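Ligand-bound model needed. pyridoxal-5'-phosphate.
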Amino acid sequence: MTLPLNANDPCAVIEADRAHVWHHLIQHKPFETVDPKIIVEGKGLRVWDIAGKEHIDGVSGGVWTVNVGYGRERIADAVRDQLVKLNFFAGAQGSIPGARFAEALVAKMPGMSRVYYANSGSEANEKGFKMIRQIAHKRHGGRKNKILYRERDYHGTTIACLSAGGQEERNMQYGPMTPAFVPVPHCLEYRAQWDLSGEEYGQRAADAIEEVILREGPDTVGGLCLEPVTAGGGVIPPPPGYWPRVQEICRKYDVLLMIDEVVCGVGRTGTWFGYQNYGIEPDIVTMAKGVASGYAAISCCVTTEAVFEMFKDDPDDPLNYFRDISTFGGCTAGPAAALENMAIIEEEGLLENTVAMGERVIANLEALSDKHAVIGDVRGKGLFCGAELVADRATKEPMDEGRVKAVVADCMQQGVIIGCTNRSVPGFNNTLCLSPPLIATADDIDAITGAIDGALSRVMA
Ligand code: PLP
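Prediction:
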């Protein structure tokens, strides 16, 4: 018989983890000799590991999630109160927090109107893809079913999401992929594909989308799914001129514009949603991580009323309702937490703080690039920033992955957790990622970039 785990015995916890947990996003061999890191507590933007060491969290829970920071009792209280009242009811029935959060959410998204609840970013994106496919069946005899996605974007872990994923290194082990997902070129000017710059570059990158639509046949392309700012694929904010042209192209060819706000959504870029930085009017918006800052599992697929109406006009036609469910979309903890999360962002002025602190991150990284020639490019939007490391600034030869990882590990030694793009194709596996909770202060930002300064000095010595 297995004895109950003694949570107060760090060695027992580490051994239980080592013996039984299959961690996300990591090759396990090193855990045979190195202890897995166990995080036990968080407050504000600091977390403590099982050895009692304090860390500044520069990545919001590892994956851009804990936007309002740790230890928010009012969220925990709201969730508890809701769970003891009604924890769950799924299917056609609604709930009070579900209705209230949907109303609060669309109030932040002019033009959007309907909220479909699910649990993860991948799942929200699956909902969006299914809506686009169903609209193709309903309005175009099934023909306008192709969905375009962009190189370097990521939309989740299911096979359909990977089929829409522009990071080959995440997909290649899992083929065959779902048909009718078609790539368009990435828009990172630093790794330029056209000999242009600024607005002209942005327009050219968007024109490449039109070229794909024309090549595939406009009557076969039903949707375009993009991240507002590419996240794990290299922290890539779009160049100026990109988004207006993308919108124009979608309207011209009657292509539904689906924006994946799983990372950018709910404040990360300094606006409620990343697309709002660029004046876009999407048809479908998905979101997950920051919606409840990790206090509960919730994701949303939000649509315009026009999209919703397409699923409603003739009740006798099976193509006229969305035959879909997410069982745990009926868990009330999600919207209860999300309502408090949104209130905190508003009451504490976290959007404004994100803009100011994001500018500070960029300024600090640019100052570091005067000192460290290995910083090839600095980019970001709000508290979602990246520093691309290169072996040679002139040729832009990417820094090797081992050194990039050594910089991250050195920061961890210093008690600062940062991230990097991971196991990627050359040219995209070399970007340090910074995305602290939106409550970060100037001192926190300086501590994070100061750690990078020290790490670069040591790793490059
Ligand atoms: N979309 C983007 C942009 C993401 O970065 C992620 C996850 O990192 C997802 C979708 C998938 O979200 P989840 O892991 O919740 O399924």
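Residues 73-347 form a domain with the Aspartate Aminotransferase; domain 2 fold (CATH 3.40.640.10).
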